Amino acid sequence: MPRDTDFDAFAQAFPGAVLALAGLSRTRGYRASSVALKAQSRAFDLVFTSRRRGEPTICMEVQERGERTVERSALVKVAVYCTQNDTWSSTQLVIVYATEAARRHALSANVAVRGRRSVTITPERVVLSKIRPETLLARGGALLGLLPLVGRGRIEEAAREWYARLVSDRSIPEARREQLRDFFGRFLRRRTRGRLDVEDPVFLEKLKGVQELVARGRAEGSAKGKAEGKAEGKAETLRASIAAVLEARLGRLPRSLRSALAAADDTALERALRAAATASTVDEVSRALGPRSRRPATRNGRARR
Length: 305
Prior knowledge:
Blueprint: H1 5-13, H2 15-21, E1 30-35, E2 44-50, E3 57-63, H3 70-85, E4 91-97, H4 100-105, E5 111-113, E6 116-119, E7 124-127, H5 133-139, H6 156-168, H7 174-191, H8 201-228, H9 230-250, H10 255-263, H11 266-276, H12 282-289
Parallel strand pairs: 3-4, 4-7
Antiparallel strand pairs: 1-2, 2-3, 5-6
Helix pairs in contact: 1-2, 6-7, 6-8, 8-9, 9-11, 11-12
């Protein structure tokens, strides 16, 4: 889980991915470090500073199990940091909680005297367990390395598909992909308490099976198309292509979508293939498969103009 040397190292290697995970839109040009504060026994977990002038400084605290005074402590740290650096108007605070329970456990940092506010702090609060893995899969890139930290419940089945997506993402340079694979493995071991390891032969064998399924889908679609004729072959190739793209980008396809693909004609499949290349969810592809509205017909069957 985060708030350890692995998460800190990831933030320093891929600061934009951590800021994107926190829901921040401006993530380019930032670098991360741990900043010690005068008159404070603890440093900020992470401070992100931009190389671009005018961009805000992002101070981040990361909580795994939940420290009751984390927000109050952060209030003091922000005050010290802004005073030292004269950045009162350009500093933003983000607190990353591993779970909703950890967020609820934290005490408010707001201070009021006789009903009147004296000090108020409103950090950006991010809960990792509430972030859907599909969101990271849709965005791709370095965010794929953080997949073991998000979502709820057991991730044993999904982890192989996630890792396969990371391994096959050609938008990431090879050297950077190796770094991400290493971080993914560390986070996965921690999340599963050592039950899953990307270097384990069993994991790698099942991962190979996931990759082979994608390749087989493409090959079978093409072969079947040649055997059954040009028209049917086009439809089968489209179905196989859609399935391969979606499985690589978003993971396993639901049965309902497979049924819809099987029943769709060439026109609908072409729309779905275009949607699959950019869709954030499988629902967007399902909507693309749906029938288009038609003009109402007259009594003789011709469409009205």
